[in-house]
Structure formats: C-alpha cells, structure tokens
Amino acid sequence: MTIELKMPALSPTMEEGTIAKWLVKEGDAVKSGDILAEIETDKATMEYEAVDEGTITSLLVAEGTDGVKVGTVIATLAEEGEDAPAPAEAPKEAKPRDEAPADAAQKTGEAVQQPSDQKTEPEKESQSEVKQMETGARDLVAAAEAGGEGDVDADGPTETMTVREALRDAMAEEMRADDRVFVIGEEVAQYQGAYKVTQGLLDEFGEKRVIDTPITEYGFAGVGTGAAMGGLRPIVEFMTFNFAMQAIDHIINSAAKTNYMSGGQMRCPIVFRGPNGAAARVAAQHSQNFAPWYASVPGLIVIAPYSAADAKGLLKAAIRCEDPVVFLENELLYGHSFEVPTAEDYVLPIGKARIARPGKDVTLVSYSIGVGLALDAAKSLADEGIDAEVIDLRTLRPLDKATVLESLRKTNRMVVVEEGWPTCSIASEVMAICMDEGFDDLDAPVKRVTNIDVPMPYAANLEKAALVKVGDVIAAAKAVCYR
Amino acid sequence: MARKAQPAAPAAQPAAPNRERPAEPERYQASREELLEYYRQMLLIRRFEEKAGQLYGLGLIGGFCHLYIGQEAVAVGLQSALEVGKDSVITGYRDHGHMLAYGIDPKVIMAELTGRAAGISKGKGGSMHMFSVDHKFYGGHGIVGAQVSLGAGLGFSHKYKGDGGVCLAYFGDGAANQGQVYESFNMAELWKLPIIFVIENNQYAMGTSVNRASAEDQLYRRGESFRIPGIQVDGMDVLAVRGAAERALEWTRGGKGPILLELKTYRYRGHSMSDPAKYRSRDEVQAVREKSDPIEGLKKAFAEAGITDDEIKAIDKEIKAVVNEAADFAEQSPEPDLSELHTDVLVGSY
C-alpha cells in the first residue's frame, strides 16, 4: 500500500512551511523515526520524522520550495513487501490540493457554526488527514488578516514586514546606537529566540550583549533591574508573560517604584518584553492577558502594539525611555505581515493612541490583537451602513484619554474590544473614563466585548467559545447604535 | 534553641575541596588611625540608631524602623575595604548602618526617617527605601531577598562596563531561604560576576531562629552547590570582618566570580520597633552584649595602639554632637510640599 506523506503542522498556528532539505531520496528504505526532511516554519526549522516503514517512492515537492501548505502531499512511501510503483507523475512544486474532500463538509459545517470566521477561514480544505489543529486562535488571526492594519502612523515609503521582524529590527537598531542596550532571557541567544524574535542578534552583537539565562525568571528579572539601576539599558525577554508571574515582584516592587521612592534619584530604564495573551490551545496557565495587571501600576509604562509599524516604532521608544516599560507582544501576531515605514529611525511617541480607521457612527476601542477584530468588524458594519471609528490604544499606561474622549464626542457611542477577561480590565478603565469625563457625550451605555470570564479551556470548542469574537463586536456595535 | 553569637569557630573545610578556594582570612592589622575610624563609625551607627529609636518613641518616625544596633562591625568592617563611588552596595530594609558606613550624611538619613523634604529620598522612601546613586549605594529594599538579584544585576553592570567595581550585596539569615537568592547565585557563578554575597546572620528572621528555619544552618555553605566558596566570619569583631573583606575582594577583583561571606552577628533590639522580642530571653541578649559587643571589643585593641581615653572621649563627644544635629535637622525640616505627591512617578513626560 502506498502511503502519502503530507506536509505536517509543526506548530499550532502553522499554515505553510518550506521544505528546507530532503534527507532521503527516492528509493531509500526508511524506518520509523528516520528523519525525512527539515521543514522550516515561521518559528524554527523542524525535523520531519517517518512514522511508517517502507521505501520512498517519490518526492513530490522540491527542496527549497516555499509556501507548502499544511496537508500537501510531499512524498509517497511504499510499505514493505509491496512492489514499489514507479515514481508518481507529479509536479515538483508546492501545490495545495483544493478538491473538496470527503471530510470537508464536516469541517465546513463547523466553520459555519462560527459566525465570525465564515469569510475568513484562511485554509482551503484539503483531502489530507493532516488536519490543522482546531483552535479559536485561528479566528483571531483570521480577523487580523481580514481587518488589516488600518492607517499607518507615518507618511512615506513602507515595506512589508512581520511583527517578529519589526521587533527584531527595533532591538538591533537600538543596540547599534547604544552600547548600554543588551538582551537577556531564556533562549534569546543560541536558540535565536523561542519565538525567533531575537533571531540574528547573537551573530551581530555577540554573547556579551545577547545573553541566555537559565530558567529563572525571578532571578533574571532582578538581574536586569539591578543592571538598569547600575546604568545599563536591559531588554528582558520573557518567553511568555505567563512566566513573568514568577518575576512580577521585580517588575513592580523593584523597577516601577524605584524612581518615586528614591525621590527621583534612581532611574530604572528597562524593557520587559515578550508575548502576552491567548495563544493556540495552550490552556489556562499559558493563555492570559496581563495588560490590566501592569497597567494598574504607577511607575510603569505599558505598551501593547498591534501592527508591525507600531511594534517597531514603540519598541524603539521603549528602549530609549528613562522609565521601566512592560512591552506586551502577541504570539499570534508574530508571523503576521504589515506595512512598516522604511524611514530611518522610525520612532513613535509613547502614550499616543492611533486612529486605525476613521468613522463617525460608533467608536471601537481596542489594543493588541483585539484591534484586528475591531477592524474586521468595522468592515462588516460598513456593509450595513454603520461607519465605525477604530482606536488602537497602543500604550495602555499612560492611556491616551484625550483621543478616546475626542472620538466619543464625535460618535457618541463606544464599544471596547479586549482579548482578555472583562473584570477589572482595560475595557473597565475605558468605560470608567467615559462615565467620568464623557458622560454628556454618550448616547448609549458603553459596551465591552471580551473573552469569557473563565480560565482558558483546552478543548477546541470550549476555547473558541471563551475567546472574544468578531460577531460579538458587530452585535455590540449595533446595540449601541440601537440597530 | 537559639544559638548565641560567639567568636566564629574556624570555618570548616568544604566537603570536597577539589576546586580553588580563597585562603583563610586573617584578622586585619589596623593602623592607629584605622582603629579610631572604625570606632568612630561604629559609634556613629550605634548612637544614630539609639536616637532613631527615641524619635520613633516620640512619634516622629513612623511605620517600620529596623535598627542595626549590635551589628555595627559588619557594615564598618566590610565597607571600610570598599572604594566609595566605584564599588556598589545594596541591602535590605535594615539599611541605616550600611548608609552611614558609606559616608552618607546622617542628617539626610535621619530626615528621611522623619519623612521630611530634606530626606535623602525627599521623604518618599522612608526607613526601608533610601538610595545614594552618587555613592553607588543602591538601597534600601523592602522585599526580603530582592536585593540579592538586584545586586547580581549591579555586579553584571560592573562587569559589562569593565569599571573594576565590585558589588556588595547584604541579606539576612531570613532572606537566605528565598528562592531568588539561589537563582542569583547560579547566574553570578555562571557568569563570574564580581559580587560579594554577605549573609548577616543575626540569628533571627524576625522571630524565627536560624535553626527553626534552615535545614543547613551553616549558611556559609549555601553557595557550595553553585561552586561559590563561602567563609564564616565573626561578625562581632570588626577586624575579623575587615580581614574577610580583604580576602573576598581579592577573589572577586581577581575575576574569580562571586564569594559568599556569612557574618555571625546579633541584633540587640527587636526585628523592628514594633517587635516585643518574646522569642528570646533578656539574658541571652545581655550575655551577647557583655561578651561580644563590637564596640567594646574594639576598645581592647586601643591600649596596645596607644590610644588614650581622652581621644576616645573626644570621639564620643563629636558623635553625640553629630547625632543631635541630625535629629534636630530631621525634626525641624519641613514636610514635603504636597505637590511632591505627583512628582517622580515617571521620569519622562508622555
């Protein structure tokens, strides 16, 4: 029997990859556990192992082919005791199969049940058994895909770049400009970053300035904070902010309070950065948005960008900042491409929101990945004759109240969109500001659209149900417009 | 049973001396001038702290106030070996003595205790949160053990900048059981950071004696599994402490990485001003004062050095005046202006 070997999904959000290298050739006998190929995902180069024993009868995708969709048949294997058939006639290039497969109806059926992702389901169905993992995270990414970035906060030429590359470039540029800047964290150097954000930095800057730590968050957050007190400019990477809970004492008690309790004598210019918020199917301890926690602390700057341009411009500003900064990235957005200004030294001001989409009927306020949902919802709302304005807060502390209130004066209606819990959230804060300082401008109560108020579940259907959805944003926007 | 402070037994050899260790420290041979200076500094700390205790009783100092009385030889012996402005010092909340031993003006320290605008932190830090970046004195930290990681970061910055400085990071026998201490030990040795970890073992973590809290109560051994050599020192003898400081500095300045000193010492007062100290007997405290007091102990070396009673009296008088002046300054300085409430939260404007 011939076994089709399919492009595997090597990460929860992987859609496609590159066949970096074949380690077998046609006619080779392989057994379970043999490494067949090296496959490059957006995060790393992974080895692809054989599961079955047999003889490779054909390699269908040439080495070096980019953009091979998950599920594409990349090779065939004849099982032992069977006549190896002649190599199949097949194109030696990546070509996802798009015939409607037997199980596609079922998958499509599922998709239909998700109102928010009908038009944005990014993957064409394939007949593959290699199914992409089901996850609500994909709906968030799809919304970002559909929503785009909105208006970029700059004139002039731009280039397409992933958020990951934008962050890396920001660090590299600041490290070139200032010898005091260094990066410290788990797997930031030799591994090139657990999420590849620090890729290439070790090669350029050496081990003095790109420093791998043991798994010791409390300790290295303290070392970074102490180094900042001693006059350096550390960038402390947390593999994710979930792990920063081990270190939150240094972020708050040591870094945030130092300037105040020293009467302005002792600075702590440090950036704590890393992915924050829900990822894909990683459940309760690895899926949490800490933005409201840090944004409640005087003495900290808290930044949570959505687009690559903002990621770059604001990370550069954060590194130059004399105050301690918590810089919250989003894993689901790392591989996402946006337009980034090519202007030399693109730096954005901290504490200024961005009007990602101007509109007049209702204001959708959000930050981080929620902005994608808001922009996607705004497109749907436009089809129904509702002109939504989308505000990307970008900096959560200090919060740009002026931009929020000015938009409210214009639209008189507001929905806050947040990938996080509702209670004591950024949404709560924005609502309080509107009550306090914008009450007379309100034509309807402000609504918040957030995740469900439960720990993040693992099961795919529960996870989807727990996450904030575009459909809910649309519904809330209509509700505040009384439509 | 609480263990009493005694002149330290000679430090036991480590279990497996298969790696380089610093030589055993020798009691420091102080000059006449140095003896007088140690006396002056220890007395300043003692009288300052006694005065702080009085001001606390009068309601002029609020909150927590942790006095250093009894432990003076540690700060003076160690910091006299450092270079102010080059070597950094960081400590926990019992920080007044360490500041005085680094030459920081008693007036601004006392004014910080009374919460006045002229205090070293403009009255916003208080007893536990005081800093002098000019002296490279980095606080003054209220979270037990935090200063150890922060100190490793200061050591990191010395190495990164190549400024030749060493960080002295103090912590107590209580902090020695915090996890981040060991995270810091690991990184400090891994990266050969120039840092001297100093455990001031005053026998009690608040009300819990060392042997009720520490499975390994010989705290100088706590670095062994990280290959950090440890030395146990009589922290009641300023000359023994200074001798150990010399060894520790040779080691760290020589690029050999961190070293751990355990200073056996004793605090005469409660953990803080609000501690009735019922966990130990008056007799225990009295016995230490009589047998091991660091200031009285130093006086024994005076006769041989030809220091006269008149010289001692002159210093006593000078210190009394300095402390009274600090107390007057701290009482008479105005409180911070209310506008200070909002300043220094952030450095930049956004």
Descriptive account of the structure:
The complex is a heterodimer of chains A (483) and B (350). Chain A has 483 residues and is of the alpha/beta class. Chain A folds into 3 domains: 2-95, OB fold (Dihydrolipoamide Acetyltransferase, E2P) (Beta Barrel); 144-149 and 352-480, 3-Layer(aba) Sandwich (Rossmann fold); 158-341, Rossmann fold (3-Layer(aba) Sandwich), CATH 3.40.50. Chain A has helices at residues 104-113, 136-147, 163-177, 201-205, 217-229, 248-256, 258-261, 291-295, 308-320, 370-383, 401-411, 426-438, 460-466, 470-480; strands at 2-6, 16-22, 29-30, 35-40, 45-49, 54-59, 68-69, 73-78, 158-162, 181-185, 210-212, 233-237, 271-275, 301-303, 325-329, 337-341, 354-357, 362-366, 388-392, 395-397, 414-418, 447-450. In chain A, a hairpin with a 4-residue loop joins strand 4 and strand 5. In chain A, helix 5 (217-229) runs parallel beside helix 6 (248-256). Chain A starts with a strand and ends with a helix. Chain B is of the alpha/beta class. Chain B is 40% helix and 10% strand. Chain B is built from 12 helices and 8 strands. Chain B has helices spanning 32-57, 72-79, 96-100, 106-113, 146-161, 179-190, 210-213, 238-253, 282-292, 294-299, 302-305, 309-332, and strands at 88-91, 137-140, 167-172, 195-201, 204-205, 208-209, 230-234, 259-264. Chain B has a 6-stranded parallel beta sheet, sandwiched between helices. A two-stranded antiparallel sheet of chain B has the order 5-6. In chain B, helix 1 (32-57) crosses helix 2 (72-79) and helix 1 runs parallel beside helix 12 (309-332). The relative contact order of chain B is 0.19. The model of chain B is unreliable at 1-5 (pLDDT under 50). Chains A and B meet through helix 5, helix 6 and helix 7 of A and helix 5 and helix 6 of B.
